[in-house]
Amino acid sequence: MPAPPYQELLDYVLIDAERLQARIAELGKQISSDYQHDNDLILIGILKGSLLFMSDLMRHITVAHTIDFMDVTSYGAGVRSSTGMVRILMDLQVPIEKRNVLIVEDIIDSGRTLEYVLRLLGARRPASLRVCTLLDKFERREVIIPVDYTGFKIPNVFVFGYGLDIDEYYRNLPFIGVVKPEAAINFING
Ligand code: IMP
Ligand code: MG
Questions:
Q1: Lower CB count within 10 Å: N or C terminus of the chain?
Q2: Mean pLDDT of residues grouped by 10 in the chain (190 residues)?
Q3: Which residue out of 89, 107, 152 has the highest number of ligand 1 atoms within 8 Å of its CB and is therefore the one to mutate?
Q4: Whose CA is nearest to atom 21 of ligand 1?
């Protein structure tokens, strides 16, 4: 079944494009200030959800940095809650030893994905390891994750757009929307 126009799935816009961009500019400014004396910064985007956030955020980071990406999946993806079993689909291209690493995530839900990524990257002995997430669904946290930069704390609703998908679609939308519960179920079940 082809993906219906997003309007059919959208309950309401949670964060519009203007608010997103304004907050991302603030995050970029804060990160630039915090890292001004640390050279060798590398931003690591967790695919695919962080793609849009990463590209907008880095435009506001004025200190020299490089980027890389990692793709991970949790077993039982598609299910609402991750099982805690995480697997690497694509690893980094470069070593991060002695570098200042900033992980860029779209959303933290249970925290299981990030817990795994932090343990994995921490073992590679970076000079520092911090987390920047656009969205934090804090009510659903199952493990304690140190989050250094948060764009928006959001309630326990299923969101899409601006990198976040429903069944891989709608990542291109410039805003964060809340899905109509019944619409999502119909679409995903085909
Ligand atoms: P965690 O391991 O439970 O923290 O799950 C994090 C991942 O689940 C994110 O990187 C997203 O891919 C996905 N996710 C969690 N909540 C949502 C949502 O509301 N919309 C779309 N994807 C979500
Ligand atoms: Mg997803």
A1: C
A2: 92 98 98 95 98 98 98 69 78 98 97 95 98 97 96 97 96 98 64
A3: 107
A4: 164
Which positions are catalytic?
109
The rounded Å distance from CA 80 to ligand 1 centre is 8
3-state helix, strand, coil in the chain (%, to 5): 25, 35, 40
Q: Could you give the C-alpha distances from 183 to 69, 80, 137, 169, in angstroms and in order?
A: 32, 15, 21, 14
Alpha carbon distance, N-terminus to C-terminus of the chain: 6
Question: What is the structure's pLDDT at 85?
Answer: 81
SS3 183: helix
Where is 186: in which H helix or E strand? helix 181-188
Amino acid at 75: Y
Measured in Å, residue 116 CA sits from the centre of ligand 2 at 16
Query: What residues have CB less than 8 Å from 99, skipping those under 6 apart?
Result: 40, 41, 42, 126, 127
Query: Strands 100-108 and 41-47: what pairing?
Result: parallel
Nearest CA-CA partner of 121 in 92, 93, 149: 92
Query: Residue 74 has what pLDDT?
Result: 79
* Domains contained in the chain, CATH given: 6-188 (3.40.50.2020)
Query: 164 CA to middle of ligand 2, Å?
Result: 6
Q: Identify whether the C-beta of residue 15 lies closer than 8 Å to the C-beta of residue 175.
A: yes
